[in-house]
Amino acid sequence: MTEDPVALGEQYTQHASWTNARGTRLDGREEIAGFSAPAMKSFLHDSFARYDVVKMLETAPDVIAVNVVQTPTDSTGNPVDGSRGATLHVIAGQVDGWRIAAGQNTAVAPQAV
User: Fold this and answer.
1) For the chain, which has fewer Cβ within 10 Å, the N-terminal or C-terminal residue?
2) What share of the chain is helix, strand, coil (3-state, %, to 5)?
3) Spatial CA neighbour of 84 closest among 56, 57, 32, 47
4) Using CA atoms, how far apart are residues 17 and 88, in angstroms rounded to an integer?
5) Residue 60 bridge partners (DSSP)
6) Range of the domain at 25
7) Where are the alpha helices (DSSP H) in 1-113?
8) pLDDT by residue, tens only, the chain of 113 residues
């Protein structure tokens, strides 16, 4: 894990729109990276997660919607208790490769066993 907000921002299109798990909408690559930097240095500093793609849907040429489930893990990849999430990414082909154009992260309460 590099905890690099600039590298994170580069995964988005220049004018992307992202809504985080708290419902805060962030517009543009710079705003997404800037908002993420403090979290990467504080509460996300030693956190790990597995991201599993559960569905991909082509919505238009060079545009796909991707549903992802997030599971918290330890540093070796074993699942642990903690916040789970479900994200929807809209990914678009750009001149410089595939980038996230829009998305939303939704917090998911752990299910009772």
Assistant:
1) C
2) 15, 50, 30
3) 47
4) 12
5) 63
6) 5-108
7) 5-9, 29-41
8) 457 888 889 999 999 999 998 999 999 999 999 988 776 676 566 778 899 999 999 999 999 999 999 999 998 999 998 889 999 999 999 999 999 999 999 999 876 54
Please check whether residue 85 is in contact with residue 70, taking contact to mean a CB–CB distance below 8 angstroms: yes
Counting the structural domains of the chain, the total is: 1
Task: Tell me the pairing of strands 12-19 and 97-108.
Answer: parallel
Per the structure block, which two tokens stand in for 2? Answer: 């590099």
The two structure tokens encoding residue 51? 């991201």
The DSSP annotation for 35-62 comes to HHHHHHHTTTTT-EEEEEEEEEEEEETT
